[in-house]
Design brief:
alpha/beta, globular, eleven-stranded mixed β-sheet
Length: about 290
């Protein structure tokens, strides 16, 4: 029996993309009978004080901290309100905050927590205690490379990440595409996707010479999956107008996929990570859940 996901973490920053992420996490939780823990991280007003820098009076700094405190309190209230509104309309979902309570129920369980601190640190560290993190779609218009929580989870949690689409999908994981380019990241994504792959009705491996890096060709991962009892077909895709990301998503749409598994690639090890072009394109434009690993 393939390992199933038991515990999902959903960092909720705001309400815009949060509702779709909640819906997506819940669909996944229903499939696995899993627990979803929603985590909101409030800005610590003391983190604003150092930004005050030179030449600001104590009163001005106090005012800045008070304003931060107010805003973060209001945002926390909105997010909690979203969670309560969302869970009020759900049947067959239990609120539970420990495994013993959760074990007594059949369906998925949910919990909510608000913490104070630096969001990227807390979220990356907490997600190490979960099988999978589900993150809201990077807000349209917001630069993905500045989405700190997403970066932190992708590059600092050691766990797979499921990026929710802008609107919750009807189903997840019945038709799965694997983006393969031979890298350690894409191999990690396949390993993380195994529970999904086992129960999918169709799996397609997408590859392209322009996407391939040093490492095993797509036939290698196809043979690996056969060892796991998973039949996957190989399909080379063509970059559209030299854009690998667009070509990849085109091939995903052609297959009618409801999930994509791929490695998250970054060009730099710096804290301000610059996401690779393909990773960035897929993150910004995918209309289905994307399971990413690095």
């Amino acid at each position: 029996m393939a390992m199933a996901y038991r515990r999902l973490l959903l960092p909720l920053t705001g309400t815009a993309a949060g509702e779709s992420a909640l819906g997506t996490a819940l669909i996944a939780a229903r499939i696995w009978g899993a627990h979803v823990h929603c985590l909101h991280v409030r800005v610590d007003a003391r983190d604003v004080a150092p930004l005050a820098g030179e030449g600001l009076s104590g009163a001005m700094i106090e005012e800045m901290m008070a304003a931060t405190e107010r805003e973060s309190g209001e945002r926390a209230d909105r997010v909690r309100g979203l969670f309560q509104k969302f869970t009020a309309n759900l049947g067959g979902v239990t609120l539970a905050d420990n495994p013993d309570t959760a074990a007594k129920t059949d369906g998925p369980t949910l919990s909510f927590e608000s913490m104070v601190g630096r969001e990227e640190d807390i979220v990356a560290q907490q997600s190490r205690l979960y099988d999978l993190a589900v993150v809201p779609h990077p807000e349209a218009g917001e630069d993905v490379s500045s989405s700190d929580a997403l970066h932190a989870i992708l590059f600092d949690s050691g766990r797979p990440v499921l990026i929710a689409p802008r609107t919750p999908p009807a189903v997840i994981g019945t038709r799965i595409c694997i983006a393969w380019n031979g890298t350690a990241e894409s191999a990690a994504a396949v390993a993380a996707a195994l529970p999904w792959l086992h129960q999918a009705s169709a799996v397609r491996i997408l590859c392209a010479d322009e996407y391939q890096r040093r490492g095993p060709k797509a036939e290698g991962i196809q043979a690996y999956l056969r060892w796991h009892g998973i039949d996957a077909e190989l399909m080379p895709f063509k970059p559209q107008t030299r854009d690998v990301g667009a070509g990849l998503l085109g091939a995903v749409r052609d297959f009618g996929a409801d999930m994509l598994s791929m490695g998250a690639y970054s060009h730099s090890r710096l804290r301000q990570l610059i996401l690779g072009g393909v990773t960035r394109h897929v993150l910004e434009n995918a209309e289905i859940p994307v399971l990413m690993c690095r």
